[in-house]
Amino acid sequence: MVKVRLGEIRNDLGRRLRRYRAERARARSKATLIGITGSSGKSTATSLLGHILASHGTVHTQVLANTLKALVRTLYKRMKYTGKVDYVLFEAGAYEPGSIRGMAELLRPDVAVVTMVRLEHIAQFRTLDGVAQEKKALVDALSPGGLAILNADDRYVLDMASGARGRIVTFGQSEAADYRVADVHAAYPDLLGFSLRWHGGAIDIQTPFPGEHFWLPAAAAIVTALELGVPPEKVAARTASFEPLANRCKVLVTDGGPQFIVDAAKAPWHSLHIALEMMAKAKAVRKRIVLGQISDYVGSSRKYGTAYGIARDIADEVIYTGDNAHRSRASQADRDGGRFLEIRTPKEVSDHIKKTAIPGELVLLKSSGNLHLERIALAWTHDVRCWIPACGKKESCQSCGLYEVPFEEHKSFLANRRLARRRRRFGWLLGGLSFTRRS
User: How much is the pTM?
Assistant: First the structure.
């Protein structure tokens, strides 16, 4: 009992020390600190903005790991030890009331960007007002003379301008926006393009994204870069050369096989229709939709039935996988005719697609991250051998890097890899000790 208590005290002191060091690093930093939040699009906006600003200065981008712990590590380790940094970008994620406020008060951003407000993490926030209040904490924490970049099409985001200290710049398709987005078009394989107009300037943007809904995070990043002084022509060129994030509508074109749109990082109910609309507008010799786990919704399991009703009118074949595969409410006629398939595991889905694929068909992989449906696409270019239905890891298979190793061998594989590294690092010392013993 005493040992446990001492361990807790030591851990608490460690957290306090890291926090103190992060606060000191923030106070001393001359970098422009940029915080980005929103119910959707924040990861893409953060990554794209970092890519654009890298042509304008030295950048550190913290994306996906969007917690207070990640922010402390970013402020202390990255800013203290990596030398001069011109821009620090941090994606701030909300997972419970007060989670963003703690990050915002530590970050004290020079620029705060908010993409949208939707009903997410329903059990914690319950209402849109609750989500909006949490996101607003980032704007409220702006440093004196700071800048807020807000979505003019979202009234919950636009209301954040009230009481904000600093300058407000808006973007969106609204005529009242400071930067107005128009002529939005994407119909895969035609990738997203749009025009951006503002007082005294205009640019046409071409992006690497397959769906129209990406105009919002793209515009958020582009407007922020323009406000920070990046020339419009450089902004356009860097946007066109951006590599989209893995598993967030990333396109994989196989040699002589299917084309995959891998959207397997998250699947909140509020944005599911966007992915389906993207598939509806796409052009392909055949379309298939694989749906796994829907996240962040309240009510009955009828959402899966609603989703199937939409998907069946878009795709030639709809496949449900995972623990909720039986909730499609698909008719017996659809089942008998092959319009709908219930396949419980990602491995079985992969095997089915490999047996039935035709060149050039388009396959959407849509799920929350727990099923790691990205493996279905990876199996066309790699020898995927980790097929456990749900491994419990939050990181993607690409980040984990062990998808070519059976899951039950992961621990021993990592242990052997650590041992090999130690041998490479200290082999000369071990060899010297061995020589001494022999003599």
Answer: 0.87
